[in-house]
Amino acid sequence: MKPNELQGKVALVTGASKGLGKAMALALAKAGAKLALVSRDEKLLAETAAAIAALGAEAAVFPADVSEEAQVLALEKAVAERLGRVAILVNNAGINLRKAITEFTLEEWNRVQATNVTSVFLMCRAFVPHMQGRGYGRILNLTSIMSHVSLPGRTAYATSKTALLGFTKSLALELAPDAITVNGISPGPFATEMNQPLLESAELSQFFLSRIPLHRWGQPAEVAELAVFLCSEAAGFITGTDIVIDGGWTAQ
After folding, report:
1. Pairing of β 180-187 and β 137-142
2. For position 183, what pLDDT does the model report?
3. What is the pLDDT of residues 4-50, one digit of tens each?
4. What is the CATH number of domain 10-245?
5. Sheet containing 137-142: order of strands
6. How far apart (Å, rounded) are the C-alpha atoms in residues 72 and 78?
7. How much is the pLDDT for 74?
8. Which of 53, 150, 194, 247 has its CA 20 to 30 A from that of 113?
9. pTM score, two decimals?
């Protein structure tokens, strides 16, 4: 990849307040992109923006719930006015409720689907027009190894991530004539805030480590570097696929 590969490009990252989203936002900024940072937590978004500013890059904060149509429509207008047309869209926002199917309420089930799937539809519908007719566009959807395998207690999450994988493949075919690539990134167990309950339990953490051939948790920077590569010109022939980054979990 060239230095400042993404210089001048506007990249929007949802769920940019922490975890993988924050790591990807920082990596994209290091590659020269201007960042639109989106999440419901304005305070944590400001911390991400400050970290990006310390790198000498530009970032703007846009608090929003991307599962709400009206908020996404308002977000599109605000980003366009502040930063211009988005060239890179990273759909990272997501939640995971771990419980038995008989314990789920309908509201909880719908909340997982809305946050993990419907939000991606809303964001793509709003921002794909920014990319069309430019000869370049990148959409990254954070799928999961739960798009490919699963565990007990993950029915809602696995359903949402499997749906997102199908969405990714179909949208890639739809947008190929515009030279817009659409890919999934399927992380395995990563040391993020979402997985903090697992990390804090010696028994659960050991269970996950026993399933990972590399025998360690992934680090957010490893997903971030993959995201930057997929946004580069060098990755222009990669579309409609899902890259699993899981320490070997799904190879078994």
Report:
1. parallel
2. 98
3. 899 999 999 999 999 999 999 999 999 999 999 999 999 999 999 99
4. 3.40.50.720
5. 59-63, 34-39, 10-14, 88-91, 137-142, 180-187, 242-245
6. 10
7. 98
8. 247
9. 0.95
C-alpha distances out from residue 65 to 107, 132, 156, 219, Å: 16, 25, 19, 26
Average pLDDT over residues 211-232: 96
Residue 73's CB is within 10 A of a number of other CB atoms, namely 13
Closest listed residue to residue 169, CA positions, set 143, 149, 188, 133: 143
> For the chain, what are the domain ranges?
10-245
Dihedrals φ, ψ of 240, to 5°?
A: 75, 20
The CA angle 184-136-91, to the nearest 5 degrees, is 30
Among 62, 157, 190, 217, the active-site one is: 157
Q: How far apart are CA 252 and CA 249, in angstroms?
A: 6
* Residue 136 annotated among the catalytic residues of the structure: no
Cα angle 210, 160, 170; round to 5: 115
pLDDT in tens, 150-182: 999 999 999 999 999 999 999 999 999 999 999
Does position 195 have pLDDT exceeding 80, yes or no? no
Of the candidates 11, 92, 16, the residue with the CA atom closest to the CA atom of residue 48: 16
